[in-house]
Amino acid sequence: MFKNILVPTDGSDLAAKAVEQAVLFAKEIGAKITAVTITEPSNLLSVSPTQLASVPGVDVLLIGPSDLSIELGVPLDYQCDIYQRALDKIAATAAKHGIAAAMYFIPPGMDPNFFVQKGFKFFTMPWGPWATAGIQNGLSGIKR
After folding, report:
1. Residue 79 lies in a domain
2. How far is 81 from 83, CA to CA, in rounded Å?
3. In angstroms, how far is the first alpha carbon of the chain from the final one?
4. With the CA atoms of 35, 39, 45 and 48 taken in that order, what torsion angle do they form, in degrees rounded to the nearest 10?
């Protein structure tokens, strides 16, 4: 039957119900779920982290750092208080719901351990510099 199910969501209540049903169906048939969030550029924060984390079957809050900073009105300013408070809220919400907080990438010039200390559980790695230095060398610098 189906091995993968793509579930689009726009953050609405109706979409949340569709996600719930898709998760139930996927469990029933042994399929994997891939969720895609469909939003307008000015609508990224219309769904709170708590709303997302509360959907049955959601096991990670994956943050796009550039998208988040732009939506917060602090484009690419990853150090500012507004951005940092948003990260803290996301990490706390994920922890409260027993799911992982994750970063799509580590912003340039930032230490991955900074995000680990905030409570983020996984993230993609800065592949450019690591391609030269070697993955093993890069992984050895992360405290686990």
Report:
1. yes
2. 5
3. 39
4. -40
CB count in 10 Å sphere of residue 121 = 16
Find, among 94, 31, 108, 101, the residue nearest to 66 by Cα: 108
Give pLDDT < 50 ranges for the chain.
Answer: 43-44
87 shares a domain with 25: no
Instruction: Tell me: do 128 and 64 sit in the same domain.
Output: yes
144 inside domain? no
* DSSP strand pairing (4-9 vs 32-37): parallel
pTM, 2 dp: 0.60
Same domain flag for 92 and 132: yes
Amino acid identity of residue 87, one-letter, is L
Backbone angles phi, psi at 92, to 5 degrees: -65, -40
